[in-house]
């Protein structure tokens, strides 16, 4: 059976300070609120056909609610659900109609670390447009990185059950492997798994139009007083630019651009030694990667592990 997952759709967060979080994403970060309900906000990127790329939900506890991926057809959704069921993976919901913006057909399940994952097909395409030159707002969702206490096991789970392929690995002589970049299409990574002390969100990344727009957006965030964790710089693995900031609840969010697209037939994964400065930042413009920078991305212990979100 070929790969059933096609791409990353959206990442959903729950937070106590809903209004502050909403103001950040719909304001300085540059997303557009397209739908809202009591304690729920759906935020889209102007350049993306996805109905929304971030959902915010008001909750007493901060958590990662959901990571959602797309599939080509309802039949693929059913096939994946059957495959996971047979493998003993816990399904949170059976395949059926979705009542989120754009509808569609999908289901939810827990991954190895207890995160809730959704896979859906037939979601209506949102009217979107080309992002203009110098327009420094996200074009689309780029990728999500998840912290796992068992890096190798989580990588193997995504390879076995969801057909993700390994693109590259970050490692160092004294720490061993710390990050696996995983793909579900020719984009270098839609998902990466980072070695963390606990299960949590590492960061959410947003694709900008180009280098100029990426830098303008980074500058706007710096001027807004948002905390710049790391950047601006350019990674070696994936060849993409990076500026990492903290949202009001301490989740790390990234502006990026020019993430590599691979020829999947010929690509061979490399192991990059991140103790070499040019691996973490080819340009040498970012602040040095150190334990303080790394710690910001560990995030808080996720309270949503093996607990499905209420909506």
Overall 3D shape: globular
Going by CATH, the architecture of the largest domain would be: Roll
Major beta sheet summary: 9 strands, mixed
As residue ranges, the low-confidence spans are none
Instruction: Quote the distance from N terminus to C terminus.
Output: 31 Å
CATH superfamily descriptor of the largest domain: 2,3-Dihydroxybiphenyl 1,2-Dioxygenase, domain 1
Rg over C-alpha atoms, rounded to the nearest angstrom = 18 Å
Helix and strand element order:
EHEEEEHEEEEHEEEEHEEEEHH
Total number of beta strands? 17
The assigned structural class equals alpha/beta
Tally of individual helices: 6
Average pLDDT metric: 97
The amount of beta strand, in percent, is 35-45%
Helix content: 10-25%
The CATH class of the largest domain, by name, is: Alpha Beta
Q: What count of structural domains?
A: 2
Provide the spatial order of strands within the biggest beta sheet: 14-15-16-13-9-12-11-10-17
Keywords: Metal-binding
Pfam family, one: Glyoxalase
Domain VOC: 7-122, 140-258
Organism: Actinocorallia libanotica
Give your account of this protein's structure:
InterPro entries: Glyas_Bleomycin-R_OHBP_Dase, Glyas_Fos-R_dOase_dom, MMCE/EMCE_epimerase, VOC_core. By secondary structure, this protein is α/β, with parallel strands linked by helices. The chain has 2 domains: 5-121, 2,3-Dihydroxybiphenyl 1,2-Dioxygenase, domain 1 (Roll), CATH 3.10.180; 140-296, 2,3-Dihydroxybiphenyl 1,2-Dioxygenase, domain 1 (Roll). The protein has helices at 18-26, 74-86, 151-162, 211-224, 277-280, 291-296; strands at residues 5-15, 32-37, 40-44, 54-58, 63-71, 91-97, 105-110, 116-121, 140-148, 165-172, 176-183, 191-195, 200-207, 228-234, 241-246, 252-256, 270-273. The protein has a 9-stranded mixed beta sheet. An 8-stranded mixed beta sheet has the order 2-3-4-1-5-8-7-6, with helices on one face. A hairpin with a 7-residue loop joins strand 11 (176-183) and strand 12. The model has no long low-confidence stretch (mean pLDDT 97).
